[in-house]
């Protein structure tokens, strides 16, 4: 009996390996992707180039039109139509194939002079090039990981690239690969550029700012139930003194920023030093949902609407992920329901849709989605 002990122990150890691989990820904290010094220096160089390239943007307070580069305005002309129109930069942040590229192709059709596309794709994941208007729109990217500051870096990288690439980019929309449009391109463009946010949305107790009435659409919340847990995710006093709890905010990682706010984001160093730190409590750590709302709230609260134009259904969410729509749920009624918001603006995008929703969405694209 005792002679079999080594054999029994060896056999038990052999059986334990599968269990170890199964349960270890649930017991041990995951290893986050760290932002290396070379990557940080690369980003800083990119941000500096983008900032310098934007110095010729007019600094006058154009309260009735987006700010355009001086070199694109024809001298001596009094006809506004003689100047190029501002563009929307669509910034796709993805770690998988752009399954809804055909739907976005239809959305962008016949509007090539009014938009640009930039894609940050995780280089550690093999992604099939979507082609079409997405051809050659991939930017120099770094590895990303959920619930880590790498997603902040990726969004900042997209913003800086778009700022540097085209001075006519005036709005910057961060989009997920799981996002779909809810309206036609004309509707989105006209809503952003010909329907500025009402002056009545300014907080009555705030002093006027230099921001134009074209504001950023970003969710900024101060009453989220788990706000304290999120604030102390890196340690109880780590965010001090730069960010006291009273100034900490939460919101969606998908947003639309004005050009001046995009510049504000890539110029920031002070808050970034805090948000780039690793979290101790990974279950409350979502830096990409904290950094942008906190920065905008602290630097220019009246320059943002405090709500997003991307609809997300958090009913029945699991593991920090929102509800994912399946093909059986796709219908004209769903599209109309997703458009409805509590603001003066309709929701313009929605997430999260499974890849197999593409066909039913294309089936109703022309008659429902792009018919406003």
TrEMBL record:
Annotated segments matching region Disordered: 58-83
Keyword flag Repressor:
no
The transmembrane residues are none
Q: What GO molecular function annotations does the UniProt record carry, in alphabetical order?
A: glycosyltransferase activity
Q: Which GO terms describe its cellular component?
A: membrane
- Keyword annotations of the record: Glycoprotein, Glycosyltransferase, Membrane, Transferase
User: Subcellular location, in the record's words?
Assistant: Membrane
Name the residue ranges with Basic residues bias: 65-74
Q: How does it sit in the membrane?
A: Single-pass type II membrane protein
State the PANTHER family in the record: CORE-2/I-BRANCHING BETA-1,6-N-ACETYLGLUCOSAMINYLTRANSFERASE FAMILY PROTEIN-RELATED, CORE-2_I-BRANCHING BETA-1,6-N-ACETYLGLUCOSAMINYLTRANSFERASE FAMILY PROTEIN
Q: What is this protein called?
A: Core-2/I-branching beta-1,6-N-acetylglucosaminyltransferase family protein
